[in-house]
Amino acid sequence: MRLIGSVLSLLALTPIVSAAASAAVDKIEKFSNIAKSKSGVIPLTNSLYSEIVGSPRNYTAAVLLTALDTKFGCHLCREFHPEYELLAKSWQAQHKNNDGLFFAMLDFAKGRDTFVKLGLNTAPILMLFPPTVGENADPLHITDPLKFDFSQHQIPAESIARWISQHTPYEPKVVRPFDYTNLVIGISAAAAALTILKLSFNTLKPALYSRNLWSAVSLILILLFTSGHMYNHIRRVPYVANNGKGGIAYIAGGFQNQFGLETQIVAVVYAILAFCAISLAMKVPRIADPTKQKVTVIVWNAVLLCCFSFLLSLFRQKNGGYPFFLPPFW
Amino acid sequence: MSLDAFLKDESTRNLRSLLKAVILITIAGAAVSSRLFSVIRFESIIHEFDPWFNFRASKYLVQNDFYSFWDWFDDRTWYPLGRVTGGTLYPGLMVTSGIIYHILRFLTFPVDIRNICVMLAPAFSGLTALATYLFTKEMKDDAAGLLAAAFIGIAPGYISRSVAGSYDNEAIAIFLLMFTFYLWIKALKLGSAFWGALCALFYFYMVAAWGGYVFITNMIPLHAFVLVLMGRFSARLYVAYCSWYALGTLASMQIPFVGFLPIRSSEHMAALGVFGLLQIVAFVDYVRSQVPSKQFQSLLRSFIVVAFILSSAALVLLTVSGTIAPWSGRFYSLWDTGYAKIHIPIIASVSEHQPTAWPAFFFDLEMLIWLFPAGVYMCFRTLADEHVFVIIYGIMASYFAGVMVRLMLTLTPVVCVAAAIALSNILDVYTNLEKPDPAVVAAAKAAEEKEEKKSGLLNAARGTVVGIYATGSKLTVVGAFTFYLFLFVLHCTWVTSNAYSSPSVVLASRLPDGSQHIIDDYREAYYWLRKNTPYDAKIMSWWDYGYQIGGMADRTTLVDNNTWNNTHIATVGKAMASREEVSYPILRKHDVDYVLVIFGGLLGYSGDDINKFLWMIRIAEGVWPDEVKEREFFTSRGEYRVDDGATETMKNSLMYKMSYYNYNTLFPAGQAQDRVRGVKLPAVGPTLNTLEEAFTSENWIVRIYKVKDLDNLGRDHASAAAFESGKKKRKSKAGKAKGARKLRIV
Asked: Which residues cross the membrane (chain A) (predicted)?
């Protein structure tokens, strides 16, 4: 039995060895056909996977192992997928016969066994298998492919293209299809906006020429910017944070740090202070009734003092060594 | 006699001018003296990094003549590339101090160029106060002008870049900025080509002095454009703008560093576009005044719109086709705030390019920051052409200051102006000694009854002004604001004294008994280099220290703060981040004799090279992504560590080895501590084979290593060192005295 088995296996092996070269050519043709029919990315199954990564390879294969099904909750996989397809499509469009570079993808749903075999528990993984034969053969990476580091690179197709061109002689170029829908939407939106503007110009005119509107917009912008809104925008700071004692911290510790709510408090304080100054300068002297005027002056002064004092105490929280304060907050 | 009459009376005019002059001189004196903390505490020394290059260039200018300065090719920086220094700098600052130097020499004052350089920024801050006075005077009146001058004189936002010794382009640029804006407002108000030409002249000076001139290049066209949109086109605007643009652009092109940029880069296109727009508008305006037909007028108006759209489209096309350079990265990153971090790490790595948190605004401007919106609101109430300028300037500058800390500098002047307008409006009302006129009161009451009552923020200025009745009210308000102003002065002094007066070349610390202890490691090390190395020795260090080495040690450097060649900087980064076997060939190929690193571990000085190391790695990775990988410097848990848990790549990097080499010998065995990172270091320190320690400063802040020559027997350094140590072992076994070994090291 054993003898027969080994003979059988020998018999089975012989044609494979002798046909190794032709098998490689066949593989190219096969995958090239699949790629053509699927317009770029070759969808793999377990068996196709072992075929495409199996040596000998006289082609380069980029293989993406991913989990697209929503139940896996792989956000990155779904984000990455269209980019990968775009790259494969661009390559397919520029190289009709693939020229020895294939883009393949194995979804977890179809290739659970491969995932298990490779011992993978994360996705997505993008591997690059260089050829094992031919002039571009890379003996270092026959079974051990290059892996794309998702944490270090940006996701867009261009960065994968750059990564591939760094490691292979191929230089894939990403051709993003021109987005006509966006253009059309943009143009029609602009046209619609112009039409509406034209039609309603007489109604809008007072607003457009309104000094009050413009001054309100300007003041809001200035208050936003001077209260550190751009910092929030760039650094994406949290709105509030946990203070570690189960409560909520409104004020971030440290001079170079802030929370979203904190900047809003500061902006409101600035606004009140500015409003006090405006009232004292412009509104109060226009009050014709003496008693009313006196009360108003006292009220605004008190509000000003309190707000300024609050601002200083806020600042002392940020900068421990700050020596100045005003009553009533200190 | 009433105060108002006194202020306007013809007979007291001379007295008032004298008073104004005295006040302005006092303000200038206060501005200068508040900037002298560092000179008094330390000495007359140039600060930080960039000023050292400016100082070196100024020395070159006064030692040679102007033309050789213009043609200066500096072969002692960026070795082996060199730098065409004369063509790649803004010469305004050096020429200014050169001229002052020659004038003083001519007047037989034997002044050292260093003292001129140190004192230039405070001196110009006095002039800035004057320029701000003039500018604000155009906005409101003398009183507001004087207040604004006082504010800008002591506002920390401006002091931060203009203390004595801070010999940087900004030192004179803020004066030029304010003065150019003043001249522009003046030209616009008078419609005078003379003032327009003067504005162009100072614009030229500004272009020669600071890259931030682009701010003016865009502010003035924006102002003109908004005025046209508001329907305020006038012959005055046309004359002022055209004379400024035509002369200013031609003049600015005379600076080699600027060259043809004004017609080829996007930053300057707004000015060109508005220039073209104004021609069309002026033409249409003229034709319209000749042709009364209404249809024809609307035809002309649409002609303007079409021309505007067409020229914008042409601009986009030219930019896409590459004829006009797109926005340069530095400016582009102001709009697309995520851009620099991805594409130009070298810009993102500079701390002054970070966004501004709110405490920084308050720190630099204190009460002015909330008077600022009030002032802008008051500008909206009058809204003459010049007030539009303050409003636009205010919005733009506060946006820029929010995006980048260093642009707080351009925000400060407009905040001072607006705050002065607000405060002087308040003081005008409450320092008026007269009681309200009964006739006016009656009229106001009648008007009030007639009109519907509408109150609120947006129409605070409705109704007639009656004035303030109670003396108590006046005293309260004036008293409160006087107190706030005193607080402002105290704040400014405190901030200047504590935050902005450190030269950063010399560090100060307090001893337990309260006395001051000066840490002078930088100068100690640079002086060592100057005295102990050959004149043509090449020093490699991270780019931050390039200017200082050039200025203080006078030795050739590989890279410096003029980060013009990213690849060269990345090469240095790679040498620092790689293993010795990789770094040594790089050092040899660049003829490096000494390597200098900054190490703060002993003192707890956090601005050292290990903390900057990540940027070196990132910049190197940008050029050699295969050889330097940021990931490998982090542990598997994503921590950046230098202790036992550091990754192998980290421990084998040249920077790590140079920083911690021999450091554990300072401590009892196994007790070595890094006081910046607050960690205990491995018991066995790193070994260095290809470099040898040449100098370490008193507090270990600066460490200098000499690059070993090739081995005499052709071995690699590691095996040579192994052989040496093996021999040593055998000899010590043979009972050789320790003294002999010591002698060999010396």
From this structure: 180-201, 213-231, 265-285, 297-315
Cβ proximity of B581 and B687 under 8 Å:
no
Q: How many of the other CB atoms lie within 10 Å of CB of B382?
A: 12
Among candidates B510, B559, B550, which has minimal Cα distance to B530?
B550
Contact state of A226 with B358 under an 8 Å Cβ cutoff: yes
Residue B564 identity (one-letter amino acid): W
- The answer to whether the CB atoms of A288 and B466 lie below 8 A apart is yes
CB B54 within 8 A of CB B171: no
Nearest CA in chain B to A315: B359
Q: Which helix (H) or strand (E) holds B707?
A: strand B702-707
Between chains, do B470 and A290 touch, taking CB under 8 Å as contact? yes
With respect to residue B20, please indicate whether it lies within any of the assigned structural domains: no
Interatomic CA distance for residues B496 and B477, integer angstroms: 28
B448 has a pLDDT exceeding 80:
no
Number of domains chain B is built from: 3
Contact status of B435 with chain A (Cβ, < 8 Å):
no
With beta carbons less than 8 A apart as the criterion, state whether A322 and B466 touch: no
CA neighbor of B36 nearest in space, from B94, B97, B118 = B118
Confidence of residue A39 (pLDDT cuts 50, 70, 90): confident
Contact B539, B716 (CB under 8 A): no
Identify whether B506 is part of a domain: no
Strand partners, B83: B74
Q: Which of B700, B177, B699, B675 lies closest to B407 in space, CA to CA?
A: B177
Interface confidence (ipTM) of the complex? 0.86
- Phi and psi dihedrals of A37, rounded to 5? -70, -30
Clarify whether residues B591 and B554 are in a common domain: yes
**pLDDT of B300:** 76
How many angstroms separate the first and last alpha carbons of chain A?
96
**Residues in contact with B377: Cβ distance below 8 Å, sequence separation at least 6, in sequence order:** A215, A219, A274, A278, B422
Angle at B538 between CA B533 and CA B541, to 5 degrees: 105
- Whole-angstrom distance, CA of residue B488 vs CA of residue B729: 69
- CA atoms of B660 and B684, how far apart (whole Å): 10
**Which residue in chain B has the smallest CA separation from A254?**
B359
Structural domains of chain A ordered from first start = 23-167 (3.40.30.10), 210-318 (no CATH)
- Looking from the CA of A329 toward its CB, the CA atoms found within 13 Å total 16
Distance from CA of B639 to the nearest CA of A (A): 14
Residue-range definition of the domain harbouring residue B595 = 530-709
pTM for this model (two decimals): 0.82
The confidence score (pLDDT) of residue B735 equals 43
Check whether residue B555 and residue B703 sit in a common domain: yes
Note the pLDDT tens digit of each residue in B669-716.
888 888 888 888 888 888 888 999 999 999 999 999 999 998 888 888
How many alpha carbons lie under 13 Å from residue A208 in its C-beta half-sphere? Answer: 11
Q: Is the minimum CB–CB distance between B370 and chain A shorter than 8 Å?
A: yes
SS (H, E, C) B316-366: HHHHHHCCCECCCHHHHHHHCCCHHHHHCHHHHCCHHHCCCCHHHHHHHHC
Residue B325 reports pLDDT greater than 60? yes
Residue B636 falls inside a structural domain: yes
Rama region for A74: left / alpha / beta (φ>0; ψ in -120 to 50; rest): beta
Give the percent of chain B with pLDDT over 90: 51
**DSSP labels, B726-739:** HHHHHHHHTT--HH
Distances (CA, A) of B685 to B37, B657, B664, B706: 42, 8, 6, 19
- Pairing verdict, β B556-557 and B516-519: unpaired
How many residues are present in chain A?
Answer: 330
A81 and A42 Cβ atoms separated by less than 8 Å: no
Phi, psi angle pair for A240, to nearest 5°: -140, 170
Question: Which single residue is written with the structure tokens 């701000």?
Answer: B132
Distance in angstroms (rounded) separating the CA atoms of residues B134 and B152: 12
